């Protein structure tokens, strides 16, 4: 595959979606051929799965949650990611497989090896070339989300989001060649500049 694959990760409220948009604007101005996607979602099927997953009215058990995320991901990989990379595009995804490792594995307590096996099937073994992990504390995340309507996952308690962050920090240590830790506690434009600096050597 000729293209570049970049994923953004972080706990809810870290500012990752804002940073994806800023990066998209910057790279479009530079004339790069981009495809920007989100998870869950990014396809007609995936967006319907997203509605189920984020609806606060739904009682979803951890294994069901893992399989729904993997289903959305499998559709995204087949329908969008593989064709785009084959054409040489830069693919940027707001969340990918690492989200399942931390949310369903570390935070929900599912066996990590099982989460990995399911997701290897879903992704056909495709991983991002680089993963930008935007790190903020759970306290800061809660502060940023105050007054906003929370979806099913955003509405989880402090301990859940603390476990999610701990899971991400473990992945940063486990995959140092792929993960780049970005300090998300800083001002939005400063975070954007850090991301551009990191990506200079990759693009």
Write up what this structure looks like.
The chain has about 200 residues and is an alpha/beta fold. It has one domain (about 5-200): Rossmann fold (3-Layer(aba) Sandwich). The chain contains eight helices and five strands, in the order βαβααβααβααβα. It has helices at about 15-30, 45-55, 60-85, 95-105, 110-125, 140-145, 160-175, 190-200; strands spanning about 5-10, 35-40, 90-95, 130-135, 180-185. The chain has a five-stranded parallel beta sheet, sandwiched between helices. Helix 3 (about 60-85) runs parallel beside helix 5 and helix 4 (about 95-105) crosses helix 7. The radius of gyration is 16 Å and the shape is globular. The model has no long low-confidence stretch (mean pLDDT about 95).
CATH class wording = Alpha Beta
Q: Based on CA inertia axes, which overall geometry fits?
A: globular
Low-confidence stretches: none
Using the CA coordinates, give the radius of gyration: 16 Å
Sequence of strands across the biggest β-sheet: 2-3-1-4-5
Helix content: 40-55%
Q: Let me know the CATH homologous superfamily.
A: P-loop containing nucleotide triphosphate hydrolases
């Amino acid at each position: 595959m000729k293209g570049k694959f970049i994923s953004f990760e972080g706990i809810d409220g870290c500012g990752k979606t804002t940073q994806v948009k800023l990066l998209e604007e910057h790279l479009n101005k530079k004339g790069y051929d981009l495809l920007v996607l989100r998870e869950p979602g990014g396809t007609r099927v995936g967006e319907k799965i997203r509605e189920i997953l984020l609806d606060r009215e739904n009682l979803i058990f951890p294994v069901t949650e893992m399989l729904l995320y993997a289903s959305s991901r499998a559709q995204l990989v087949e329908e969008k990611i593989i064709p785009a990379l084959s054409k040489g595009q830069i693919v940027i995804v707001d969340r990918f497989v690492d989200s399942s490792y931390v949310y369903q594995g570390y935070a929900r307590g599912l066996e990590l090896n099982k989460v990995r096996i399911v997701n290897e099937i879903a992704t056909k073994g495709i991983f991002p070339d680089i993963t930008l992990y935007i790190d903020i504390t759970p306290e800061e995340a809660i502060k940023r989300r105050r007054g906003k309507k929370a979806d099913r996952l955003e509405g989880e308690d402090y301990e859940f989001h603390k476990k999610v962050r701990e899971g991400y920090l473990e992945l940063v240590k486990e995959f140092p060649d792929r993960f780049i830790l970005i300090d998300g506690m800083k001002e939005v434009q400063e975070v954007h500049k850090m991301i551009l600096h990191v990506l200079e050597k990759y693009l």
